[in-house]
Amino acid sequence: MPAPLPSVHEILTTRRGEEMVLNDRVLNPQLGRIVRTLGFDRQWVAGEGAHLIDDRGDRYLDLLCGYGVFAVGRNHPDVIAALEDVMAARTPNLPQLGVTLLAGVLAEALVERAPASIGAMVPANSGTEAVEAAIKLSRATTGRDRILFAEHAFHGLTLGSLSLNGNKEFRDGFGPLLADCRAVPFGDLDALERELAGGGVAALIVEPVQGKGVNLAPAGYLRGAQERCHAAGALLVCDEVQTGIGRTGRLFALEHWDVEPDMITVAKALSGGFVPIGGVLVSRHVMGRVFDGMERGVRHGSTFGTNDLAAAAGLATLRVLEREGLVEHAARMGELLLELTRPLVDRYEIVREVRGLGLMWAIELGRPGGAASRSLFKAVERAQPGLIAQLVTVPLFHEHRILCQVAGHGMNVVKALPALVVEEAEIRRFAAALEEVVAAAERLPSAMASFGWRMARQSVAARR
């Protein structure tokens, strides 16, 4: 018989330090290998605002941000208070054959802040579940099967969302995926028009800014996609799971291009960093076509989709964003970050591009100019594609206490998603640290190559 489980308080106080052992034994040992290979195996004991804190009391600027979850920062007191209010109220949560207050108020708040095309919300529990719902709603609304998505897109990892994932490394081994899902080049209106001309398209589902690589939609692309989809009787769905809720300096990224889609998927930051949440903001037309009679009133739903804790977290997050002016702050800090880092393109041969929108930022690296350096670069890339980007992220972590990520498999793009509460001083610290690391890479190609080979060997060993 297993031993009786202790309280959470006892677990947190008596079993601290066992995190990696438990992960390797009963969770995902390959993740543990990745973390150890990069040297990111810290024992995290606290989170505050834009920072993670380890067991030695060292503060790390967190530019990974839980993949964009912690928009209002870690452990924001207002979100904690909202959750405590719900638990203290002992609300009549999830009656299922009945409705409750908080989910309705959250839906109301989001609809009021969304483009005029949006009239309702279909609740979910996560981003990938919201995308799954959008696929279903698109097909039910139009009576068509085909779903278009962009190359290099990331819409989630459950089977339906994976069918719209433009990254081979995520899809391999999980087929057959949903039929009638087809990729089109991101930003290419002519390619989109050709696919629409083939008929039977229910929707184009697209990220305004692609999370994998931080690729921005070209000017006019989303408006053009909306016009072409509607002319062909198809829907436009904007996946704002990562870009939404203030990340790009607008509440929804689509506002930068004055788009009025048929659906918007939301999740991540809406959680306040505490309770999983997702949803699809939909037009009245979609709502009326899908739920078109009493017998169809429960044809789509989610057991925990309207739970009070998630709704409270979402409402508190919106309140914090507006009271603290965090959406406008994200726009200002994003402009500053680009201003400080775009000059690296001219200063360093290995920097190909710096791009971003609000506090969604990336730097792309490429081959250096010298023949010897190019040869070393190519050799490291052959050993492990995309490894050069880790030559930036690893020194940032170890030498500057800054946690960030490579923006996708096999690509030399480093990505940053700061919390929207990040202070100007931290943006400047990151920019200075980044230049120091990039400059070191150019000054010491052989040392960097040695580091790359070591990382490649460790990575190969980790796959065995």
Automatic annotation (TrEMBL):
Record has Cytoplasm as a keyword:
no
Q: Which domain of life is it from?
A: Bacteria
GO molecular-function terms, A-Z: identical protein binding; pyridoxal phosphate binding; transaminase activity
Q: What's the cofactor?
A: pyridoxal 5'-phosphate
Top-level enzyme category: transferase
Entry EC no(s): 2.6.1.-
Q: Which InterPro entries match?
A: Aminotrans_3, Aminotrans_3_PPA_site, Class-III_PLP-dep_AT, PyrdxlP-dep_Trfase, PyrdxlP-dep_Trfase_major, PyrdxlP-dep_Trfase_small
Q: Key word Transferase present in the record? A: yes
Sorted UniProt keywords: Aminotransferase, Pyridoxal phosphate, Transferase
Q: Name the family the entry cites.
A: Belongs to the class-III pyridoxal-phosphate-dependent aminotransferase family.
Q: What is this protein called?
A: Aminotransferase PigE
Q: Which organism is it from?
A: Capillimicrobium parvum
Organism lineage string: Bacteria, Bacillati, Actinomycetota, Thermoleophilia, Solirubrobacterales
